[in-house]
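not sure who needs this but someone in the group chat was asking about LysM domain-containing protein from Solanum lycopersicum so here u go. i didnt clean anything up, its just raw.
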Amino acid sequence: DTQELQFINKLELITKYNFVYSIIMVKARNYSINYLILVLSFLLILTSYQGLAVFFKGTNIVNPDCTRIYAAQAGDTCESLIEFFDLNAQVFNDINPNLNCDNIFVGEWLCTNGTIST
């Protein structure tokens, strides 16, 4: 009789524990889903040009529309390309906004003619 009562008490305790654990896990999953949605939304905002403008106020983000491209060759520099294609340095920089003039690599696609929209 005592052993049955102890077994029933343990069973009730385990059942209560499992119930509480289940509630905690459901809440944890909801928090995880909400956190995931928040992180994905933030990343979506950061990856859009307009979203970046929100974080970098006063920064003018340009969208170059290239009509002619060039694959960089060994020895190319920004200065040599500006001279070769008879470009204005500012225009060249504007139509190649992510170009690192100190590290042009062979085969890098460069815009040599195009328009800029903001």
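also The radius of gyration is 30 Å. if thats useful
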